[in-house]
Amino acid sequence: MSIEVKVPVLPESVSDATIATWHKKAGDSVRRDENLLDLETDKVVLEVPSPVDGVLKELKFKEGDTVTSSQVIAIIEPGAVAAAPAPVAAPAAAPKAAAPQAAAPVAAAPAAKADTSNLSPAGRFVAEANQINPADVAGTGRHNQVTKEDLVNFIKAGGSSAPAGARPEQRVPMTRIRQRIAERMMQSKNSIAMLTSFNEVNLGKVMAMRKELGEPFEKTHGIKLGFMSFFAKAAANALQKYPVVNSSVDGNDVIYHGFADISIAVSTEKGLVTPVLRNVESQSFADIELGIANYAKAAREGGLKLEDLQGGTFTITNGGTFGSLMSTPIVNPPQSAILGMHAIKERPIAENGQVVIAPMMFIALSYDHRIIDGKEAVLFLVDIKNQLENPHRMLLGL
Q1: 44 and 131 co-located in one domain
Q2: The domain boundary residue, chosen from 156, 183, 210
Q3: What are phi and psi of 283, to 5 degrees?
């Protein structure tokens, strides 16, 4: 009896999904729990595993098609075995040579290995994985060097390289996730009276604490002590003192949240996602670091679940990992505020009447000015600054 493979039940907030990639084709053998295809929603990419061992008999949709919850997308014949490839006919016996002194066949020389020494590590990986000889590709880099992009374009063009001096263009549809990000950002810009306040933080004591306690922390908890746990904990404490920053607008009402569910912005190849750390106000530093590490791994491997991204009362984003010195992050509605971290730079500052060099970071708070006044936003940012410059205050709940 054939088995139907259906689209997983999608949450109410997700109406449909797009078939991003089929990992199997009709006629292939499949194993139970083996991933058949990737479904892309406007939030995450879902894997659809095979329910049984068997043969994939029919694909009802192709890549790029839109499907809905519980819709049948494939048929599997359980217990069947894929047809073996047809045997290759043995070559006919060669006629006897008329001349007894016929020359013996000469073995074909092995193909020379392509020279990839001038490629970047990423370019070398692409060339070797796809068995491309860089000499066959027209380089657009400095001194006509072949770049990773040249190799990728060479593959997409079916093995033909663009002529030298060409100005190639490529039209690619936006992914569902990227479309959703665009919608949310425009919704934020069009519906929120957004304002950004800035401050700077001396992270000398935080760095000293990480240096002193980082090794025993990792041995005890099995996770490194990073910067994000300090910022998440400081934000959670400040949200308890200034609850309006932790609120959201619902029509003519303001909803005050008595918990700090903090969304941590994580960059992936498909776009920015914001998995949620729940109840950060009651979590330890180790809990926060473990939660962030697990989410980061799941995001890279495409293993985030829809429930991981739902909710959230406040967001932290760290542009400093990419070298950003200052930015104005965009609020993620229905939240009312977002904290932006940036790169740590050593700068001269005045301290106790002396000029000293200190590891400084600019921090930014973008907020919905409809419900958050400038005074509350600035005091919230100052509270975070004070906690980070005196990290023992967080341990004492001050």
Answers
A1: no
A2: 156
A3: -90, 150
Statement to judge: residues 250 and 309 lie in one domain: yes
Round the CA-based radius of gyration of the chain to a whole number and report it.
29
Give yes or no: residues 53 and 202 share one domain. Answer: no
The values of phi and psi at residue 350, to 5°, are: -90, 125
Yes or no: say if 277 and 283 are a contact pair by the CB < 8 Å rule: yes
DSSP 119: S
Q: What gap in Å lies between CA 314 and CA 302, rounded to an integer? A: 23
Identity of the residue numbered 106: V
- Name the token pair of 391: 């990290």
Q: Give residue 225's domain range.
A: 195-396
DSSP 375: H
* 242 & 346 share domain: yes
Token pair belonging to 271: 């776009």
pTM over 0.70: no
User: What residue type is assigned to position 221 of the chain?
Assistant: H
Q: Which residues of 122-148 are buried (b: 16+ CB within 10 A; e: fewer)?
A: ebbebbeeeebebeebbbbeeeeebbb
Domain CATH code at residue 301: 3.30.559.10
Q: Which of 104, 138, 156 is the endpoint of a domain?
A: 156
The token pair at 323 is 């070298």
Of 26, 1, 7, the C-alpha closest to 77 is 1
- C-alpha span between 223 and 218 (Å, rounded): 5
Residue 227 lies in a domain: yes
User: What is the largest distance, in Å, between two alpha-carbon atoms of the chain?
Assistant: 105
Burial class (CB in 10 A: 0-12, 13-18, 19+), 386: middle
Q: What residues are annotated to the active site?
A: 369, 373
User: Is the same domain home to 255 and 388?
Assistant: yes
User: What stretches in the chain show pLDDT beneath 70?
Assistant: 11-13, 43, 80-114, 117, 121-122, 142-143, 158-166, 270, 396-398
- Give the pLDDT confidence of 127-170 residue by residue, as tens digits: 877 778 888 888 877 667 788 778 877 877 766 555 556 677 77
Helix (H, G, I), strand (E, B) or coil at 377: helix
304, 295 in Cβ contact below 8 A? Answer: yes
Cβ 225 vs Cβ 288: under 8 Å: no
pLDDT tens digits for range 87-128: 555 555 545 544 445 444 444 444 556 677 677 766 777 787
Are 233 and 309 part of one and the same domain? yes
Domain count, the chain: 3
